[in-house]
Design goal:
The protein has about 400 residues and is of the alpha+beta class. The protein is built from nine helices and eight strands. This is DUF155 domain-containing protein.
Length: about 400
């Protein structure tokens, strides 16, 4: 399409949009979407050789969702008049746990930020015109809707790192995951909000069984109010996956530190660390198991919040299952169990070695005591033996 044709088309869209907006017969955002849709179709017709050349590239996520990414291609490659742009969801974990109450009076947060069930919700964040939505969860994870990596890192730097005492057990390296979403409140096919491949579609949602789950005073937000709790459910599942990824990375580093033990046993017959070092490693292992199974937010269980809301539970479980959180939790538990068994065997070897050393020490002490007794009482004993023989001879 030539620059003149593009300019004429754009002017026509703007004029038509203004006319319809002034008449208040159709929402402005819908006509803007239609103009974008028509422009996309026109550009696609002029580039028929590469119909997907302008399509958004796949997320850089390393999650298991990549295996089902092809399921989102129909949405990515076929825009509709009511569908918005594909936007990122960026998740970052920076600590083992957050104390969310420390955010209540944070000076950098918008005044309408508030607690939303098990998260701290920021309805708007970012530069004007590039605003997104943020959920901060107590498991040390931040989920950003409509914000890219740089904006998410800015939130962590300006809010999380500046809140004194909010981070418990800061991670040496943050763990991140990426996903995409698209808003289509008037889905032409009548489809509901769902996860399709590696893309979340925010469409129609059913009524809540308990409307009081929504905040009392809902502030203005960037994304549709109707899908607020759906976004919360997806965010909680994504936050769990990212927190689990951080735990998996930490445990892999722990296994690396223990990797030389079997080789040392095979080559020298002795463990390459002392009893104290082994006890410290066992303490680290117990900490991993506690974080995985005994923390406030268990990775395998569905939160109580969803018991009365089957639709929200469906959003949560669909993303949790797609990210294989349950299988990964079971796998990590198996690794911890194997490592604990190996350390138990090493501890037993060290105990046997210590017992053998104690036996040698006791034998040595007995020998020393015998030598000392001989040195001290030897002449007297000799005199007693020799003197008795001499007396017998004299008697005869």
């Amino acid at each position: 399409m030539t620059s003149i044709a593009l300019r004429a088309f754009r002017n026509g869209c703007i004029a038509h949009t203004r006319h319809q907006h002034l008449s208040n017969s159709v929402p402005l955002w819908l006509w803007n979407s239609q103009c974008r849709y028509q422009g996309t179709k026109a550009a696609a017709s002029s580039q028929s050789e590469h119909p997907l050349s302008d399509a958004k590239s796949k997320p850089k996520s390393t999650t298991p969702l990549r295996r089902s990414a092809s399921a989102s291609l129909p949405i990515r490659a076929n825009p509709t008049p009511t569908r918005g742009d594909i936007q990122p969801i960026f998740t970052i974990a920076t600590a083992e746990r957050y104390i969310l109450s420390r955010l209540r009076s944070h000076p950098e947060l918008p005044p309408r930020s508030q607690a939303l069930h098990e998260a701290w919700w920021v309805p708007k964040w970012g530069a004007e015109g590039k605003e997104g939505e943020v959920f901060v969860f107590a498991n040390g994870t931040v989920v950003c809707w409509g914000l890219g990596e740089s904006a998410a890192n800015s939130f962590v730097k300006e809010v999380i790192h500046r809140a004194p005492g909010i981070e418990v057990g800061p991670l040496k390296e943050p763990e991140t995951e990426e996903l995409d979403f698209v808003v289509d409140p008037i889905e032409l096919s009548g489809a509901q909000t769902r996860l399709q491949g590696d893309l979340i579609l925010l469409g129609q949602t059913g009524p809540l069984n308990e409307p009081e789950l929504l905040p009392t005073n809902i502030p203005p937000m960037v994304l549709p109010q109707e899908t607020l709790l759906a976004r919360y459910a997806f965010s909680q599942a994504l936050a769990r996956s990212t927190a689990l990824s951080a735990l998996e990375v930490s445990f892999d580093k722990y296994l690396t530190s223990m990797a030389l033990l079997p080789h040392a046993l095979a080559e020298t017959g002795k463990p390459s660390m002392s009893r104290i070092q082994l006890i410290k490693k066992l303490g680290e292992l117990m900490k991993f198991r506690q974080q995985l199974n005994l923390s406030y937010e268990n990775f395998s269980e569905v939160p109580d919040f969803y018991w009365a809301e089957p639709e929200l539970e469906r959003y949560f479980t669909s993303l949790r299952n797609a990210l294989e959180v349950k299988a990964r939790t079971s796998s990590l538990n198996d690794k911890i169990t194997y490592t604990a068994d190996m350390q138990s065997m090493l501890r037993q070897l060290l105990t046997e070695s210590s017992t053998h050393s104690m036996e040698l020490i006791i034998i040595a002490l007995i020998a020393v005591e015998v030598v000392i007794a001989l040195i001290r009482d030897g002449p007297e004993l000799w005199h007693m033996v020799v003197g008795a023989d001499e007396e017998k001879e004299a008697a005869h």
